[in-house]
Amino acid sequence: MSGPGDSDSELSAPVPSVSTLRPPSRRRWWWIGGGAVLSGALAASWFALPIRTVEVMGEQHLNDGQVRELAGLTPDFGWLYYGAWRARGLLDDPWVLSASVTRRFPDAVTVQVNERSPVARWQKEDGTVVWVAADSTILPMTPEKSAELTALPLIQGWGPSRLEDALKVLTALGGYNVESVAYTPTGLRAKMPTGSVWSGDLKFLLKYAGSIGMYPKQNINIYPWGVSVQE
Q: What is the tally of structural domains in the chain?
């Protein structure tokens, strides 16, 4: 006959692990000690490896200080902990199309920014004029740059905004020195120094845009069924 200590019920019962049999106080002090060492190591790595050298490249409309601020490059921020998560603020600025961040041991960071460029001026429905990039992003106008950018083509019109359509027309007619693009609900007209081109259908305007070079100094109307040329 089996004794009480040999029963199946006792064998299947949970048995304390070796670690649970250790004095609780020893385990608690081990975790407290390990956490203190880890915290100390992290703090030491922060203060021992701060960012001391920052190089900003590619900026045109933003200045060095603005890029540093957007990238979260505050003085003495820990080099080991700096990365894209910290620099994500760069993409919140309309001038910044993309950016890359490179760390160089032991204390240097390089920020390369790729800025948008204004390709046109857009007169909004309320009459205000703003700069726009090729992807239709509205760019902040700065007093020191406004004078040199007055030569950009002017986009204007009435009815629902057709800014993106007008920008496509500018791109398609990039070699014809377009001065302005006007839009209405029924069409778009691009004006050059000595002529113009109009179409009620953006698709056909883009399709036949290259042919306007055959009719210099003339006004061209593009229809689905053909092209009309006027003096």
A: 2
In the chain, where does DSSP find H-type helix?
Answer: 8-12, 24-48, 64-70, 84-87, 143-146, 163-172, 202-207
Separation of alpha carbons 62 and 41, rounded Å: 37
HSE-up (13 A, CA, CB side) for residue 14? 3
> CA-CA distance, 73 to 75, in Å (whole number)?
6
Asked if 167 and 139 touch (Cβ cutoff 8 Å), the reply is: no
pLDDT at site 48? 55
Last residue of a domain, one of 115, 147, 171: 115
Residue 3 lies in a domain: no
What is the model's pTM? 0.74
Q: Which amino acid is at 179?
A: E
The one-letter code for the residue type at 168 is K
CB atoms within 10 A of CB 115: 19
